[in-house]
Design brief:
The protein is an alpha/beta fold. It has helices at about 35-50, 65-80, 95-100; strands at about 10-20, 20-30, 55-65, 85-90, 110. A hairpin with a 2-residue loop joins strand 1 (about 10-20) and strand 2.
């Protein structure tokens, strides 16, 4: 049966909370080719506004593919190029593992390490 939403069943929700000069963007669901657009738009808007500090909460991300990883790297580069701070907050175990295997964990400032971590 065809998917009525045409997205293959993948979903990503994005929320934004501001606390002074810190903006916390929380993403939940699957960060992949079919869902990355909304998060990309939010992050580009924050970069365009010159937001000085951004934390991306990934504790509720169930899946990330190469498109999602590319988005994270591009966001990190964009914010750093304008002198802003961009950190990942509480990446889920799956996200952390992908970052470790890809050798990108050291690129990101990671706040609170892993959600539910036993470390």
């Amino acid at each position: 049966m065809p998917d009525p939403e045409g997205d293959g069943g993948q979903h990503l929700s994005v929320t934004v909370d501001k606390d002074g000069d810190l903006v916390v963007v929380s993403a939940a669901g699957e960060l992949e080719y079919g869902t990355a657009g909304e998060l990309r738009s939010v992050l580009l808007g924050l970069a365009h506004d010159g937001t000085p500090r951004v934390a991306l909460d990934l504790s509720a991300i169930d899946f990330v593919d190469s498109t999602g990883i590319s988005l994270l790297v591009q966001a990190k580069q964009r914010f750093e190029a304008q002198g802003s701070e961009f950190v990942l907050r509480k990446p889920s175990h799956r996200v952390r593992r992908v970052l470790e295997v890809s050798g990108l964990l050291e690129l990101f400032g990671v706040d609170d390490l892993t959600a539910g971590s036993d470390r």
